[in-house]
Write a structure and sequence with these properties.
The complex is a heterodimer of chains A (about 260) and B (about 250).
Chain A lengths: L1 H24 L6 H11 L4 H25 L6 H39 L2 H7 L4 H40 L3 H9 L4 H28 L3 H34 L6
Helix pairs in contact in A: 1-6, 1-8, 2-6, 3-4, 3-6, 4-6, 4-7, 4-8, 4-9, 6-8, 8-9
Chain B lengths: L4 E12 L2 E12 L3 E6 L5 H8 L7 E6 L2 E2 L5 H8 L2 E4 L11 H12 L5 H14 L15 H13 L5 E5 L7 H18 L2 E5 L3 H7 L2 E6 L2 E6 L1 H5 L4 H7 L3
Parallel strand pairs in B: 3-8, 3-9, 6-7, 7-8
Antiparallel strand pairs in B: 1-2, 1-4, 4-5, 9-10
Classes of the chains: A mainly alpha (about 260), B alpha/beta (about 250).
């Protein structure tokens, strides 16, 4: 019973933490300089990982689907299948999970370390709102960086698929792209890409919550980073189920 | 020395949950004076400093800084008071993701908003030179040794040319020679700018060198206040043990 109560209390606190961050995001003064620093750290510095993962995943998924589609004489469907898979689901979900690992752990550990080494006290002693300075900037940076990174992941996945397919069938780039985008609609690209903003909100809120509120020295740093990755990954997967259902509801043509 | 009290604790009580960390503590620090606060671990020394800069609020009592009671102050008024105060944290608390120069520029940008970029640059260079880190402006905190970090923390506390300097454990984790260098720096600041200081320390040797007065806390209560010589003859055994150099 006590475990359930603790869980519900923490879930409530975390929700309020995220809501307060969203409220503060629209309240001046805005921490533009520090926000841009976070956007570079979270977005730009994650780009090599996202592109590399997208390329590798693109190659692997094409290798797997080719062997099956060849049996049905449907290898011409590979580019279309590849782009559908990446733009609809693989790109957003894998980007979310990779970022939960890279950024979630980083934010959790960094903030917990700042708490343990009195850096947060030092910020407040300068009359800086540490919540706005450290938390809001990171959550907003996550919300904006995730969709951008997803576009890179999607494109890298399609490119990886092309490399793999070109090596086997010598298909041209123009034909591959033509087949890949043929049949793609607004609903296949914009809603799944924008849903990663929710993933960004989850990663930012969960990792900032654990990092900012834990105050237990080096053990706290370890717990903050582990909890951030585990819980944000789990919540991303759960949120994905709900968001996919919501996208199908709003854009019924996508469900067909 | 100016007789006017710059800092005054009036019957201050602070508890964390059931645990009373400060219990009805009162003392005064005059302008230009250095007060060293001594006591065993967990007796409320660092809490005293955090109350003085408004990071914590007292449960009871008044905290006067230049005759203003800061206890009921909201953030806006605290911000005005903090412009007069420099705080050197025990771990230096340098921002890991900022260079040393940026660490020092931040207080200038936030608490001294009218300064231009050139003025901020000059003030940062001046503060770094004052603590002997003039050539290390571009370094990141992770590139600094323990002693350098302490000096950098002191430079950040000094960059706004505060009238009151709060220092938490300046010599903790340092060897005797480096600790003595930090004490020399504090003496230099005290002499050159007549800054009022409150120093929390375990180092009696340093406290005797830098401090004009000493306050001894034990289990949240102020059990001794006076010069080192006065406290040496105290009736309280804890006070005698803490102030004794041997």
């Amino acid at each position: 019973m006590r475990t359930i109560t603790n869980f519900l209390t923490e879930a409530g606190e975390m929700s309020l933490f995220g809501l307060n961050a969203m409220k503060d995001a629209f309240r001046p003064p805005f921490e533009w300089q520090y926000f841009l620093r976070q956007l570079v750290e979270i977005g730009w510095r994650s780009l090599p990982l996202i592109v590399a993962a997208g390329l590798a995943l693109g190659v692997v998924t094409t290798l797997h689907t080719r062997s099956t589609l060849v049996d049905f004489g449907a290898e011409a469907m590979i580019p279309s299948l590849q782009s559908m898979a990446f733009f609809n689901e693989l790109g957003p979900l894998v980007t979310g999970l990779l970022m939960a690992g890279r950024v979630g752990a980083g934010i959790g550990a960094e903030l917990a370390n700042m708490r343990a080494t009195e850096q947060i006290d030092a910020i407040e002693s300068l009359s800086i709102d540490s919540f706005k300075f450290l938390v809001v900037t990171r959550i907003v940076a996550c919300i904006l960086a995730l969709p951008m990174l997803t576009v890179f992941m999607d494109c890298a996945g399609v490119l990886g698929g092309f490399f793999s397919e070109h090596a086997v069938s010598k298909i041209s780039w123009a034909l591959y792209v033509n087949r890949a985008v043929n049949g793609m609609a607004f609903a296949n690209f914009i809603p799944p890409t924008l849903k990663t903003s929710v993933f960004g909100f989850i990663i930012g809120t969960v990792s900032c919550f654990f990092g900012y509120t834990i105050n237990e020295g080096s053990d706290g740093v370890r717990r903050a980073s582990t909890n951030s990755v585990v819980l944000s990954s789990l919540l991303i997967i759960l949120a994905d189920v709900i968001l996919v259902k919501a996208i199908f509801f709003i854009f019924p043509e996508q469900a067909i | 020395m100016n007789e006017e009290a710059v800092v005054e604790f009036r019957n201050v009580t602070k508890a964390f949950g059931e645990r009373k960390v400060l219990d009805d503590v009162s003392f005064k620090v005059r302008a230009g004076e250095a007060l060293c606060v001594l006591g065993r671990s967990g007796t409320g020394k660092s809490t005293t400093l955090k109350l003085l800069i408004g990071l914590l609020k007292p449960d009871k009592g008044q905290i006067l800084i230049e005759n203003e009671d800061i206890a009921p102050f909201e953030e806006e008024d605290l911000s005005r008071v903090r412009r007069k105060i420099g705080f050197m944290f025990q771990s230096a608390a340098l921002f890991d993701s900022f260079s040393l120069g940026d660490n020092l520029a931040l207080p200038m940008q936030r608490l001294n908003k009218c300064k231009s970029i050139d003025e901020i640059d000059r003030a940062v260079d001046e503060a770094l030179q004052q603590v002997g880190l003039g050539t290390d402006r571009a370094k990141m905190p992770s590139e600094l040794s323990g002693g350098m970090r302490k000096r950098a923390g002191l430079a950040r506390a000094l960059v706004l040319k505060p009238r009151l300097l709060l220092i938490d454990e300046p010599s903790s984790g340092l060897d005797r020679i480096t600790a003595s260098e930090i004490d020399d720096l504090l003496l230099k600041v005290k002499k050159e700018s007549q800054t009022t200081m409150i120093i929390v320390t375990h180092d009696v040797h340093g406290a005797r060198r830098v401090g004009d007065q000493m306050a001894v806390l034990d289990r949240g209560r102020l059990v001794g206040f006076g010069t080192a010589d006065e406290l040496q003859g105290s009736d309280n055994e804890v006070v005698r043990n803490l102030v004794s150099e041997s």
